[in-house]
Fold these 2 entries.
Entry 1:
Amino acid sequence: MKTALAAALLACSLFTATVHGAPAPAGRPAVTQELVAAGELRLQSQRLAKLWLQAGLGINAGAASRQLADGVVRFERSLAALGHLARNEHTQKPLQRIGELWTEYRSVLLLPYGSDGLAAVNRLADELMLASGRLSLRVEAQADGGGGRLLDLSLRQNMLAQRLARLYLLAQAGDRSRGRLVDIEQARKEFATALDELAAARENTPASREALALARGQWLFFERALAEIGKPGSRADHVATTSERIREVLDEVSRQYAADLDTPQLATAAVAPRRN
């Protein structure tokens, strides 16, 4: 794992060098791109910790190491794509905080699996999740009429799925404290509630409804695997593989919302209470 990740860090060092001066990406409207990039940071904060745990526990370790290296590159790309926000007084501080946390996070991801590395990886995963969530809130606030709400909510769903898998693997590693089980149940309920909210949104198009139907199907498999925690014969590899499949399906949901963001339906979407 260390060799693959070290190579990925070296390969993406150019992104880090230019992160604070990178121009806004071309093509898609800027706020949409910013929401997608900030959502990717939030997603990878949890996914990288999940994959580090997965490799350390020997659960499809080869695939987990490759995915971990890929996730590092994805994080760096998204951070670089948001570099222009360092010039915005509303987003400068959360972006700076993300950069500071990332410098530390990518270093501890190179640590071998063990108690010290476990504590550091999980602490930084949570801090980075919160920091990227704050950035997403500030970016979404700039979307005209609150039209970025459904896109950001779908992106947050992807983070929650990865967080659930990460918490499950922590339990598999031996942490089945009441607090950990409460965290898992809370994240599960949040995911289910938000998935219902997305499905019921009147702004949905036929394409987004179809993508959400696929996501709901994958959620049934994922939730079933999560329910096996602590039971004899429970399969952590099912959670690992299903969490990656649901990530791919939720990526498609977000792509549909991003594509629809400039339509009149989404442009007039009501602003609902938000969570990081």
Note: The mean pLDDT is 85.
Entry 2:
Amino acid sequence: MDTTSHTVAEQDQQPKQGPRTAAKPIEPGFVGADFPWYGLDDAWTGRRWYGATGTSPDGRTVDYGSLGHGDEPVRSYLAQDPAEGKRFAVVVTVARREARRLENGTGMLEATSVSSAAWLAGSGLLAATEHAPMERSLRQDWMDQQTALAWDLADDLDGPAWSSLTLPVDGTPQPFRYRESEYGWVLAGDAEGVHIGAYGRGVSAYGLGFGIVTEFAGYGG
């Protein structure tokens, strides 16, 4: 009797095991890529989420993708109400690819470069920006104009629109090209096996660091 009572008492004092929570699945586009994914390093303690991935025109290989940090951006332009402001930094990883022929024989793909990362980052920032309330066709004209400008800027990383910024990548300082606009900031540079682009608003780029994502459990929430 005494032994049984003692055993039951010990069991009652054991911490209760809650229901097991299934691990969140990795977004399909991020599985099986032949290059490493980059996100903000462990100094970032805020929310993390999946962005989009992009494939080659024949759909056979993943060529780039983005991972977000902070608030998911909405199209807002210089929100007057601070509560409407969104603070985010999105990291774009672009696989290093040589110029290559599509497997279906329909054409050639250009080699990727830091400019590729800068272009994807710049267009990502535009997609998260609303210039002002305007009629749809005017909005499209503005987007077309700004998209062309973003491409021209990405193709001239040594031009006056860009400045130099050094940020840690896997703990090692690396040079980036950086520019600011009224909509936010964009930067681009190199890492092992990939090109890195990033864009953001409401978060300073100067305190950021990048690292290879080895565990996706922190994303998707």
Note: Confidence is low (pLDDT under 50) at residues 1-23, 76-83.
